């Protein structure tokens, strides 16, 4: 049978079609040139930017991220990184919309603890409700609680993004069972956000049925960010293909590839 390319299996977020299921961050790189090279190597089409930490036009005269990642090539996903209250997150999203001429797709994260960077779920609910009423299309960072994930979907978030492990930890998928439950009960895209450390982690997330993965530290802080970005792009595709193909069941004992039953001796 002919090979079926993943171009026939797009990621759709808020009605927009993307061929890449890898979303990448833009922080922690040495400079904007490395950001550009790594982003290109990843094949990502959606790039997230911390509005409070990155210049996208609010500081004239300083290096601008949009000079290396232009809006005619990438979908920018402003995020509320560093916000610890719902009000701060909402203000940050409104700032991004003003800077980007009405852009309404945002990544919401409201943090509850500076050491673990775990989300404050109650504040996240509050901010999501306000932003959705204000006309934003909200992709939301949350913990790996299936109940919270479903509630955020029901509120109107266009994508739900459970953590796999603490942000920047590189620990990989710590609770695959919860991620799988979230995926199975969702009617919007589910993307793992935070905790990926290497390509095999990204592949596992996709094999669990996630619609995509967002990462930053795993690429930007690798010894060779551009090479790691390329590896992550391939891992996302491999994991997606494996999920669609359907893995064999796990068994305790061997099952010979060439069984003796039915042989002629």
Write up this protein:
This protein is an alpha/beta fold and 265 residues long. 34% of the residues lie in helices and 15% in strands. It is built from 8 helices and 10 strands. The strands form 3 sheets. It has a 5-stranded parallel β-sheet with strand order 5-4-3-10-9. A 3-stranded parallel β-sheet has the order 6-7-8.
Helix content: 25-40%
User: Helix count, per DSSP?
Assistant: 8
N-to-C order of helices and strands: EEEHEEHEHEHEHEHEHH
Basic shape: globular
* Beta-strand content bin: 15-25%
Low-confidence stretches: none
The end-to-end distance, rounded to whole angstroms, is 33 Å
Judged by helices, strands and strand pairing, the structural class is alpha/beta
Average per-residue pLDDT, rounded, comes to 93
Q: What topology, given as strand order, has the largest sheet?
A: 5-4-3-10-9
How many strand elements?
10
Largest sheet, described in full? 5 strands, parallel
Gist?
This protein is of the alpha/beta class and 265 residues long. It is 34% helix and 15% strand.
Keywords:
265 residues; alpha/beta; five-stranded parallel sheet; three-stranded parallel sheet; 10 strands; globular
Task: Please describe the topology of this protein.
Elements: E1 11-13, E2 16-18, E3 22-25, H1 32-42, E4 46-50, E5 75-79, H2 86-99, E6 105-108, H3 121-133, E7 137-142, H4 146-155, E8 159-162, H5 176-184, E9 191-193, H6 199-207, E10 212-215, H7 217-220, H8 225-245
Parallel strand pairs: 3-4, 3-10, 4-5, 6-7, 7-8, 9-10
Antiparallel strand pairs: 1-2
């Amino acid at each position: 049978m002919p090979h079926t390319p993943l171009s026939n299996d797009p990621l759709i977020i808020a009605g927009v079609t993307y061929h890449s299921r890898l979303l990448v961050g833009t922080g922690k790189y040495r400079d904007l040139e490395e950001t550009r090279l790594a982003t290109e190597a990843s094949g990502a089409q959606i790039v997230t930017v911390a509005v409070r930490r990155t210049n996208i036009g609010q500081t004239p005269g300083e290096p601008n991220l949009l000079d290396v990642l232009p809006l005619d090539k990438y979908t920018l996903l402003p995020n509320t990184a560093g916000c610890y209250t719902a009000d701060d997150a909402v203000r940050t999203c409104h700032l991004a919309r003003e800077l980007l001429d009405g852009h309404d797709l945002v990544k919401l994260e409201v943090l509850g603890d500076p050491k673990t960077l775990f989300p404050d779920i109650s504040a996240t609910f509050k901010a999501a409700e306000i932003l959705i009423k204000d006309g934003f299309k909200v992709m939301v960072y949350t913990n790996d609680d299936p109940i919270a994930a479903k509630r955020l979907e029901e509120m109107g978030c266009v994508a739900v993004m459970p953590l796999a492990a603490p942000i920047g930890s590189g620990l990989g998928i710590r609770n695959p069972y919860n991620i799988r439950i979230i995926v199975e009960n969702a009617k919007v895209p589910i993307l793992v956000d935070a905790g990926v450390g290497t390509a095999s982690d990204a592949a596992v997330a996709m094999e669990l049925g996630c619609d995509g993965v967002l990462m930053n530290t795993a690429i930007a802080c690798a010894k060779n960010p551009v090479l790691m970005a390329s590896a992550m792009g391939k891992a996302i595709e491999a994991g997606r293909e494996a999920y669609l193909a359907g893995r064999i069941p796990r068994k305790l004992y061997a099952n010979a590839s060439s069984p003796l039953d039915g042989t002629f001796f």
